[in-house]
Amino acid sequence: MITLKQLTDSQLVAIYQKNKEAAYFGELYNRYFQKVYYYCLGKVKDREDAYDITANTFLKLAEKVDKLRNPELFIAWLFKIANNACIDCGKSKGKMVSQEQADFYDFAENEEDLENVILKEDQLIKLDVILELLDYETKTLLMDKYFKGKSVEQLEQEMGLSKSAVKMRLNRGRMKIAKMWDQHQVQNRASI
Question: Could you tell me the residue range of the domain that residue 29 belongs to?
Fold first, then answer.
């Protein structure tokens, strides 16, 4: 007999959509509550708000799970709900929310566009998780170079390293990310 822990997320979602048995939803909750919480905490920077947003995300999930047509997109859909709740929390507290964040999903005109947006968001979430697993120095270096747009020369001066040392560390960082990404992809295929 197959246990709940042996089922994939998409299998749990599909079964829950059919029979509404709390055990299937409970397994999804157990798998993702902490991950959603830390995602929200990273966005809103307040523990109580992050906890409230996470709890409300799962309440909304329970209400709207029937609208998810492709259970394979569950994780991205869950984090989309959490992300939108984080944006709403920021707005209610008077924090600035970029127009890009607020309108992230508005441009999807049909289901295929929405699925592409969700898949891209899923990839960004995976990248964010991988970056968090890197050591501080490697993460900072990669963030400075690729997200803040600093030049190799600027990094040389800031780090007190030679140009070749900076390039070598950037290359090693990219290799670490690629390896972790591949491992993540293999793990996902193994769970299907």
Answer: 1-110
3-state helix, strand, coil in the chain (%, to 5): 80, 0, 20
Give dist(CA 3, CA 138) in Å, integer.
39
Residue 129 lies in a domain: no
Residues 70 and 140 in one domain: no
Tell me if 130 sits within 8 A of 138, measured CB to CB: no
Q: What is the pLDDT of residues 102-158, one digit of tens each?
A: 444 444 444 455 566 566 666 777 777 788 888 989 988 988 888 788 999 999 999
Do 95 and 174 fall into the same domain?
A: no
Length of the chain: 192
Task: Using CB atoms within 10 Å of the CB of residue 78, give its burial: 0 to 12 exposed, 13 to 18 middle, 19+ buried.
Answer: buried
Report CA dihedral (123, 129, 133, 135) to the nearest 10 degrees.
80
